[in-house]
Write a structure and sequence with these properties.
heterodimer, A: alpha/beta, B: 564 residues, mainly alpha, 25 helices, 2 strands
């Protein structure tokens, strides 16, 4: 039974890689750690879709999940495991901030580690990016890697 | 690819175009169309023997009432639960990423909220008076039970394919459900339903939309031939359903709910500004519901119009929503039925009522100051209109003045140049309708009513109508396609054939006159309901079993909320 758990948000970008690298460092320092790697596929149950999109939704969802596993999560889980860490990999649909926080609660994590994603568009400048919302709503400490 | 479609469109229209030298293209299309569909329309709207009451209206009301009683007022009992489901309170977080209840509801609604709520209600109130609103609301409330029944079955008996896609709808519950109950005839019902569904998609889901969109645009730009609007629409729809340009559809799917909400807000503002008349308007609605207040056909006329337009607007019992809802992957088909009962509520009880109240309050409908009844356009109005046209040919005027029925007047108008015939035939098409301040009917009446509150509203309404028309066409092209592939099998070429036919009908619909299009659209939508409700009667025990099991488990605490 590991003593400390870190939840790391991956998104396939360099920022995610940096977050993972930081988590590994911390885990090495703390010893006996579990790293929960999570890839979130942005999804809102309140978006609008055409009948045709609804019909194919299940298929698309499966494709999205397997793509997330193949491209990002599985390679990350493999390398991290190979380095001797205890790793759990998760792919989920939903709101990034909400999912990471729930996952942290579920695993009794000590902190959430994410990479900073720059404010890209007007929407994010006005409403705040994913990291901003995570910081605002998280129930445990959040570390943001620049 | 694009050239091929244009060629197909031209080929389809060529016999019509050849005759264009004598009459306008629009007139020819209208004539051919009315002539070839009239018999079916008459059959569907046949009166019950010895009455003025169309049997089909009775059929829908009885169906909805039976479901309401059989499921013990499910529309009231499950209303709160429906809202919890839509909010996602009972959604398993592990299913995130699948179609949500909200999405299924929104998709189905964008197929039903549309011209029925704007133009259809204006037709109901224009012919049946404000009293039609009362019957429309009642039909909406009863219709919730029909929706509940059909959507539950739609999810329960849909087809799930190995690639993860789904196909559902009445055709599937007719075949599978009947088989499960050991009943014969499911296959025949499914085939009949599919045929009517294809025609309904081409009628109410297409021609009616194109027709009213054209009426709306030409109301602003001035009159021009309908087939031009039709061609533009056909090309855009073609790009979406054949060309796979999803971005257009996606934009519409996002703008349509926004337009719907804005429509309700504007209506509410107009009502608030005229708050002193709301009591009076409801008085007109109740009084009209039972006396008719002078409308054609009296209170029966109000009732028929109310029920007809409600059914056409919310499609309860028609079976189309069962196709839209079957995409949801839920372990409990009943939850989809529960969610779907919100549709007639939002569509008819809320939005249609708004339209009707605004029309009533706007004072568009002309009341006889002496009797307080509504004035109705009659032959004398047509005669007066002819006399008012400057330089009207003397012989024709004499014939019209002496005419005792509309056919004689139409015959006299036929050979006249358009400058004389048009102003008169505009009034001819209004005979039987309540007299309005702007001599308008359908969507133009709604537009005029809203303009009394906000002068700029007709422009917004025009955009809303075009978008509503477009999103309804996209939805119905899907319903029609499902019925088509059920009959003919799946396959790229087969699907392309249907989609091309669909586009050609947009042109025909935009060019035909309102009366002929409305009759055909209604007839097809109701024909679907005849087959669908028949099947629902046989399958409702299955729904009841599901319902009792689900609500039992909900009560015992076996089914719990995931969100608190």
């Amino acid at each position: 039974m590991s003593k400390t758990t870190y939840v790391v948000g991956l998104d396939g970008s360099d920022a995610g890689e940096r977050a993972l690298a930081f988590a590994k460092e911390r885990a090495k320092a703390a010893g006996d750690c579990t790293i929960v790697l999570c890839y979130v596929i942005e999804w809102s149950p309140f978006s609008f879709q055409t009948p045709e999109e609804n019909e194919q939704r299940h298929k698309r969802r499966e494709e999205e999940i397997s793509m997330a596993h193949n491209r990002v999560l599985d390679p990350a889980v493999k390398t991290t495991t190979d380095e001797g860490f205890t790793v759990v990999g998760v792919v989920k649909h939903g709101d990034v901030a909400e999912i990471l926080d729930n996952l942290a609660k579920e695993h009794g994590a000590a902190q959430i580690i994410v990479g900073r994603v720059g404010a890209r568009g007007l929407k994010e400048r006005v409403f705040g990016g994913v990291t901003g919302r995570l910081v605002a709503s998280a129930s445990i400490p959040v570390t943001i890697i620049p | 690819m694009k050239r091929f479609t244009l060629a197909a469109l031209m080929a389809a229209l060529s016999p019509v175009a050849a005759a264009a030298q004598e009459a306008s293209i629009d007139d020819r299309i209208n004539e051919v169309f009315a002539g070839s569909t009239g018999w079916f329309v008459n059959l569907i709207f046949m009166n019950l023997p010895g009455t003025d009451f169309p049997w089909i209206v009775m059929w829908l009301v009885i169906g909805a009432s039976v479901f309401t009683i059989y499921f013990g007022l499910i529309q009231l009992r499950a209303f709160g639960h429906a809202i919890s489901l839509v909010k996602g309170d009972y959604s398993d977080p592990n299913d995130a990423g699948e179609v949500s209840h909200f999405q299924a509801l929104a998709t189905a609604l964008s197929g039903t909220v549309g011209l029925g709520n704007i133009a259809g209600v204006a037709v109901a109130v224009g012919i049946g008076g404000p009293g039609a609103t009362f019957w429309m609301i009642l039909a909406g409330l009863l219709g919730m039970a029909s929706k509940f029944t059909e959507c539950t079955l739609g999810v329960k008996y849909r087809n799930e394919y190995p690639d993860g896609t789904v196909s559902g709808g009445p055709m599937y519950y007719m075949t599978k459900g009947f088989k499960e109950r050991g009943l014969p005839g499911g296959g025949i019902l499914a085939i009949l339903f599919s045929i009517f569904c294809i025609l309904g998609a081409l009628g109410g889901g297409n021609m009616f939309q194109a027709n009213q969109a054209h009426a709306q645009i030409s109301g602003i730009t001035g009159d021009y031939p309908g087939w031009i609007t039709g061609l533009v629409f056909a090309v855009i729809v073609f790009l979406v359903i054949v060309g796979g340009i999803k971005s257009i559809a996606r934009v519409t799917e996002k703008v349509v709910p926004f337009m719907g909400i804005m429509y309700v807000i504007v209506a509410l503002i107009i009502l608030l500004v005229n708050y002193d008349k709301i009591g009076w308007a409801f008085g007109q609605i109740f009084a009209g519901a039972f006396t008719g207040l002078g409308v054609a056909g009296g209170f029966v006329g109000a009732l028929i119009q109310g029920f007809k337009r409600a059914a056409f607007s919310n499609e309860a019992g028609v079976g189309s929503a069962a196709i839209a809802h079957s995409a949801v992957r839920t372990k409990e088909p009943i939850t989809e039925g529960v969610v779907s009962l919100l549709e007639p509520f939002i569509d008819t009880v809320v939005i249609c009522t708004m339209t009707a109240l605004v029309i009533t309050i706007s004072g568009q409908l002309v009341i006889d100051p002496v009797t307080s009844n509504y004035l109705v356009y009659a032959i004398s109005d047509v005669q007066a209109a002819a006399a008012a046209v400057e330089g009207f040919p003397v012989d024709a005027l004499a014939t019209i003045q002496g005419a005792t029925d509309l056919d004689a007047i139409k015959a006299a108008l036929e050979p006249l140049p358009e400058e004389f015939s048009k102003p008169v035939s505009d009034i001819v098409s209004l005979v039987g309708y309540i007299r309005t301040a702007t001599d308008s009917s359908g969507v133009q009446l709604t537009s005029a009513a809203f303009a009394s509150g906000f002068s700029w509203f007709p422009y917004v309404l025009a955009i809303a109508v075009i978008l509503f028309a477009f999103s309804t066409m996209i939805s119905w092209s899907y319903y029609g396609l499902k019925a088509w592939t059920y009959l003919f099998g799946e396959g790229k070429t087969k699907e392309l054939v249907f989609k091309l036919i669909f586009c050609v009908f947009i042109v025909i619909g935009a060019a035909a006159k309102l009366g002929a299009v409305i009759d055909f659209s209604d007839a097809m939508i109701f024909a679907m309901a005849v087959v669908n409700i028949t099947a629902l009667y046989f399958l409702m025990p299955i729904v009841k079993r599901e319902m009792n099991s689900y609500f039992g488990r909900l009560k015992s605490g076996e089914i719990v909320k995931h969100k608190h």
